[in-house]
Amino acid sequence: MPGRPFRQGPAGLDRDSVVMAHRIRAISKRRLGARLGTVEDQELRAAVRAAVRVQLDLDG
Question: In the chain, which end has fewer C-beta atoms inside a 10 angstrom radius, N or C?
């Protein structure tokens, strides 16, 4: 399953990135670094949420 591409500007990132909802895994909060960006675009945000729901088999 391919990842969802995010361009620099719309995601607030300094370079193009990819969301890979099919690679979700649990990690400790201590392993998290600084926030890299946010998804401000509502269409992109909805697409990410939908992909996560599918991968976690959640309804709604």
Answer: C
What is the DSSP code (8-state) at residue 56?
Answer: T
Summarize the confidence of residues 51-60 as an average pLDDT: 87
The reply to whether the predicted model has a pTM over 0.85 is: no
Q: How far apart are CA 49 and CA 52, in angstroms?
A: 5
Q: Is residue 60 part of a domain?
A: no
Which amino acid is present at 13?
Answer: L
Cα–Cα–Cα angle for 31, 33, 34, rounded to 5 degrees: 160
Residue 28 Ramachandran class (φ > 0 left, ψ -120 to 50 alpha, else beta): beta
